[in-house]
Structure formats: C-alpha cells, structure tokens
Amino acid sequence: MLKRTVIGLVAVSSALVGGFVVPNAMADDVAPAAVTISYDDSLAPEYTNEITQAIQIWNDSVNNVEIVKAQSGQPAEVTFESFDGWPQAELGPMFPGDNGTIWMGKQAVDEGYNVIRIAAHEFGHSLGLPDVKPGPCESLMSGSTGGVDCTNAQPNAEEIAEVEANYANGAANAPKKEQHRVIIGWQDS
Ligand SMILES: [Zn+2]
Question: How is the chain split into domains, by residue range?
Fold first, then answer.
C-alpha cells in the first residue's frame, strides 16, 4: 500500500504543476492500482469517531479499493448522514463519481447495537456486499441478526474476498449507476 500511496501523490502533484501524463508505474504489476473512493461524515457528526474506525477496518482488510476522507466541501462517493430510523445504505460497489448514501440510524444505536459494527456493515453495502441474514456475529454482513450484543466490526474472509473481487479490475467493474440504487435496511431479515 505504501508504494501505491507514493505513486498516487506523485501523480497528483504532477497533474497540478503541468498536467503531464505520468507513465503508469504499476503497468508491470499483475494487479491494477487500487480504486480510490472517498467518504464524507460531516452530516453525521455524532458518529465520526466510529465511522473513522470502521473505515480504518476496511482499509486494513482490503487492497483493491482504498477509502479516503473527502476534503471539506468536496463531493464524496459515500456520504454518511444521521437518521432517526434504522440504518440503511445504498448498495454499491461505489466507484469514483458515484454518490451513495449511508443513513446512520439512531434507532439501532438506541437499542444498543454497536456503532462501529453498524458503520462497517453499512459501508460493506457501499462496497457492494449484500446482507447475509440470518447470520452469526462473526459475519459483518449479518447486521442486526448477529445480535444486539455483537461488537464484531471485522469483515470475515468471504466478505473480504467479495469486496476484493468487486474492485479487482479497477473501474472496469463499475456497474451502471442505476443498477445500484437499492436501499438495504439494518433490520430487514
Ligand atoms: Zn445491511
């Protein structure tokens, strides 16, 4: 990941100074460069700590997509919003230029569901994962069916593999926007 990050910075700075096309330093590698998508948590201020931890979990778990925080005022591929009902999310996988929403539902928080797990689960939807219900706590995408006492916010091996597959070919795998405007709720079974 460090190598890719450094290359990304070089590309950005070169684009800023002169618009040169930087030779693709990853061309000799088997895997294409990671897809980068951004998120905005400014509309969910009471959950920013948990959202930050959830995003860190995903970045530590997958290589083919990298999630960065959008700069203030800049559009993001995924926007977290505070919401009074149950958590919901639009199903991805989100690619650059998309604008998906995650509703951080207070109802589940009030009932005692772990907020980091909620944020990581809903972001799993942003990365294209469906619900796996009913399921055990070990499964992130089992959501509410993992139980109110479940604090696991880590995707399991199958969930990680599915996200890696969704982004394996870079933007070539991007679905048409209208194909992923499905909203999935936390409490649905
Ligand atoms: Zn869900």
Answer: 1-30, 34-185
CATH number, span 34-185: 3.40.390.10
**Predicted model pTM:** 0.80
Non-local CB neighbours of 41 within 8 Å, separated by 6+ positions: 47, 48, 51, 52, 69, 80
Which residues have CB atoms below 5 A from the ion given as ligand 1? 131, 143, 184
**Separation of 108 CA from ligand 1 center, angstroms?**
12
The pLDDT tens digits for 101-155 are 999 999 999 999 999 999 999 999 999 999 998 989 999 999 999 999 999 999 9
Q: How far is CA 63 from the centre of its chain?
A: 12
CA–CA dist 27, 68 (Å, integer): 23
What values do phi and psi take at 124, rounded to 5? -60, -40
Which among 98, 99, 92 is positioned nearest to 128, based on CA atoms? 92
Residues known to be catalytic? 122
